[in-house]
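so my prof wants the structure for this chain in the tokens format not the other one, which i didnt know existed until like an hour ago. anyway here's the sequence
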Amino acid sequence: MNGHVDWLNAQNVVAILAAVLGVVASFAGVWYERRVLRRRRIGYRVQMDMPIGRDNRHGRGRADIRLGLFSDLPDMSDATLVLLRIANDGAQSIADTDYTRRALHGLAAVFTERIVRGVAVTEPEDEHLLDHFTPSNGMAHDGDTVHLPRVPLNRGQHYKLLVLLSGGSGGSEVRVTGGIRDGVVARNRSTTVDDKSPLFSRFSRAIIIGLTLGIVALAVIIVSGQDAVPAPVAIRPPTPPPLGCATGRLTVNGSTAFAPVVQEVARRYQTDCRGSTVTVAAQGSNKGVQDLTKAGAAAASGSPTVLTVYDGQPESRAHLSGLSVALSTFAVVVNNQVPLPGLTSTSIRSIYRGDIANWNQLGGPDLPIRLVSRGADSGTRDVFRSRILDGVGEPALTSQDCLHTSSPRDRVIRCERDDTEGVLSTVATVPGAIGYGELEAAGAVHGLHTLALDGRAPVDGATAGSPLYPFVEIEHAYTYGESRPRAPSSPASATIWPGAAVRT
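here's what i got, hopefully its the right format
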């Protein structure tokens, strides 16, 4: 008919179907969140399970190479270190009254076939959470179990337990038991809430509802033949800074081997926490401790804004407070003109004693062996002496250019460099040179290659705790004076500092 508009056309049908689909998707999303995601949930996962006892070994008929962190504790020869993360993964807060166990404890962490020797609470989402982990609130351990208090957790909050165990090898079952009102306690098997934003947040619901209204309005306009009015654009509010950000200035000195990691951490921290300035001035572990002690003694009150990263632990730790922050892997490296794939620990000790002076004595080319070492301020040098040279020091300095000795009576050619980068670059350019440094840094330098030790190649940080490879060490971060309280530990255990982590 003339002047009549047939509304039942393809365009209008598509618009109506889109509107119906948008409404259904909106209600389905809100229903899914309210009925499924809004239940209370505590999730847990094991982030590290590492053997650290002196008697840990692999297989039969192989050389006995131990990490030896508890050489003075015979009952800790099979010690393991576990990092357990416990978080509120649900969409609702958990109060202390939401735990359903009849006892004072809220949860129990069970380490099957092992004995708990010490436990520390580390990396809480908020500092005040540490106040709940006291014996009066139910914090205790016995046998294979750590009893945890009824800790209130807001959405996304978490804490970690660093647990020292004995009586079994790493990898045995770890489980967390307990009950939550209208919720569950379950092991995490996928990405947790601290890695991505929660599904269907309030802002997401607002976007869904806004899109639904826009689709319905568009359908009405198309069907009625009116001009469409552009819908307002939702603008995401600025992201607030992470919790726990601190402003001001901090100087980080010490280990040159670990400096690249510290520089990356400093860069990310300054990006996330505006108004903070972190200066990395790595000059060696021992030099860093000396500067920290001097700055602390000169400070009128409190601790200076200086943090020292040390490869291992210094002999004197008076007035220093330390945290275990990472496990670093080191490697022995040689110039590429020496095609040997590996050496035994005995051969390396013979080289550094001066008993072997030419690579042809080990089946290599006719080249004099040139030792490229770190100076006395180096913590990496201390690790090399302890782990590889069996506690014996390196020979005296005999060369400046790493090519010639200062005296014809010198048995070895040995030079020193101030940092890890200097050692690696010198080994890469001097024929017949041998040295040592951090594994990741060594892998980025051309002209040299790493050596297997006693048939065992260097491994990355994810498995560096294995006793199969000896050239590893725990990195510690030191402040002058107590930076925060220590968590309690049992008398039979070694001290575990809060905030410990593993470099992976």
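also thought this was worth mentioning. The mean pLDDT is 78.
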